[in-house]
Write a structure and sequence with these properties.
This protein has 211 residues and is an alpha/beta fold. Helices cover 35% and strands 19% of the residues. The protein has 8 helices and 8 strands. The strands form 2 sheets. Strands 5-2-6-1-7-8 form a 6-stranded mixed β-sheet, with helices on both faces. The protein has a two-stranded antiparallel ribbon with strand order 3-4. A hairpin with a 4-residue loop joins β7 and β8. The chain is globular, with a radius of gyration of 17 Å. The structure holds 6-O-phosphono-beta-D-fructofuranose. The site of 6-O-phosphono-beta-D-fructofuranose (F6P) has 9 residues, from α8. 6-O-phosphono-beta-D-fructofuranose binds next to α8. One of its GO terms (molecular function) is 6-phosphofructo-2-kinase activity. One of its GO terms (biological process) is fructose 2,6-bisphosphate metabolic process. It is found in: Plastid, Chloroplast. Its main location: plastid. Keywords: ATP-binding, Nucleotide-binding.
């Protein structure tokens, strides 16, 4: 692709109550980000690039974050073209926390201190009971990386903290030298990361669109 834009969904109900996983909706603040993001995307991407792509996960919070980005039909080279038709990917769903899905970190630590300590010790390799590890996420993002390589236009991805850490690590191999670093990469809310691919990895600019 020409450019890859990465962002987390806007603030969700679970972000507010500090629960992990789940499939909650956006809060009012999250809605505000969805509006700010759409305005930014229209002005900075869609005006000159009507063929740009929008990818989300299958979870409500990413779909809701993308919903103000218009996807009307325009005529392009004499053909009707759906602008920014969103594509929902299971491969972009957040890391699955298995039996701990829907709990806070404090609740997990209280319920099972051993598991909690194991994750702290090896965040990359640790697999949640009946859930996933970051290494599992690396594997399922292979599909996304392949599909990204085939795209000739800009791609905007609205996904999740864990997913974007790994995607960023993959794409920024010029800077992220060790997979161990990936689970610790900071991906704040309300921020868009603009990646420009070059022969050796990517350069990256971060823009905060909402306080
Ligand atoms: O808290 C938001 C969230 O996206 C959770 O759904 C997910 O489990 C977590 O972040 C991933 O971050 P970490 O690997 O640091 O727990």
């Amino acid at each position: 692709p020409k450019m890859i834009y990465l962002t987390r969904h806007g603030q969700s109900e679970y972000n507010l109550t500090q629960k992990i996983g789940g499939d909650s909706s956006l809060t009012a603040h999250g809605e505000e980000y969805a509006t700010a993001l759409a305005a930014w995307v229209h002005k900075n991407i869609l005006v000159d690039n009507p063929r740009a792509r929008l990818w989300t996960s299958t979870l409500k919070r990413t779909i809701e974050t993308g919903k103000h980005i218009r996807h009307d039909e325009i005529m392009l080279d004499g053909q009707p073209w759906i602008v920014m038709r969103p594509r929902e990917w299971h491969a972009l769903d957040e890391i699955h926390a298995g039996i701990f899905d829907g709990m806070t970190y404090a609740e997990i630590e209280a319920a099972d201190p051993e598991e909690f300590a194991m994750r702290k010790k090896d965040k990359l390799g640790y697999r949640y009971p009946r859930g996933e590890s970051y290494l599992d996420v690396f594997q399922r993002l292979d599909t996304i990386i392949h599909e990204l390589e085939r795209q000739r236009d800009h791609v905007l991805i609205i996904a999740h903290q864990g997913i974007l850490r790994i995607l960023l690590g993959y794409l920024m191999w010029n800077e992220v030298k060790d997979r161990e670093e990936c689970p610790h990469i900071s991906i704040p809310l309300n921020t868009i990361k603009c990646l420009k691919p070059h022969a050796y990895g990517c350069t990256c600019d971060s823009l905060c669109l909402l306080k």
